[in-house]
Design brief:
The chain is α/β, with parallel strands linked by helices. The chain contains ten helices and 13 strands. The chain has three domains: about 25 residues; about 130 residues, 3-Layer(aba) Sandwich (D-Maltodextrin-Binding Protein, domain 2), CATH 3.40.190; about 100 residues, D-Maltodextrin-Binding Protein, domain 2, CATH 3.40.190.10. A six-stranded mixed β-sheet has the order 2-1-3-12-4-13. A five-stranded mixed β-sheet has the order 9-6-10-5-11, with helices on both faces.
Amino acid sequence: MKNNRLYLAAIAAALISAALTGCGENAKADSPEKNNNTKTADGKDLTTITALADLTPHSEILEYVEPKLNEKGYTIDIVSTASDATWNEKTQNGEVDFNFTQHEPYLIEWNEINNGTLVNIGGVHVEPIAAYSTKYDSADEVPDGATVVLPDDATNEYRALRILEQQGWIKLGNTENARASVADIEEFIKPIEITELDSYQINAHINEFDVYINNTNKVIEAGLDATKYLFREGEDSPYANIIVTTPDKADEPGLKALVEILQSEDTAKFILDKYNGAVIPVTKVSE
């Protein structure tokens, strides 16, 4: 019965979202404040690079590096921060120069399903998937029979199940291509009840479960404290968020300059300080 209520709530939320989009209510969210710089220090016009980037932390990181990118003759126009399932298609079709929203396993899966040719030109940061609770302060406090909600998309569900396995709560059977679902659980070492739900809907239902598992960016965007987790992926996670573009643009000077700045130690320090360790830069910071 609980799953049915969640399903209906998810449908209602999706319909409301679609209606608002159709009425143009998302226009402000799609248009973050634009950097007004249009020229380099020596008076030359800046070349615009167009992007699709999640609001947090992606667009915030891009806004931080833009002054340094301006020095190299480029500026970024973030076309939208309201993520949806069309972003890779729009990038593939050349509507924007790059997107900044996903990790490589997701990109590989999208290319396979859609006959896409998008490429990863550089990792920037890891948003570790983590387990949280509004009821318990540590994993040891979570009782047997606890209810757990996790994302239902193939890649992130696998990540969620993996941290449950690493925590010693479940044992997974053989999984391939970093994909798994609840059906792949071979053994429940700790008795728990798992519900699968769209990751965008999880934050609206966190008080209905003993434990919720979600991506760091969605936790931060909801105004929750992503540093107060029960357990999470390690810093060696293979799910770094990447800059994605088409093969013909992969070597463009502006994009190469952007990746170089994003992977600098200065940007890494900004990420660590801004997100208090909840977001982990791929570049190591010197002691």
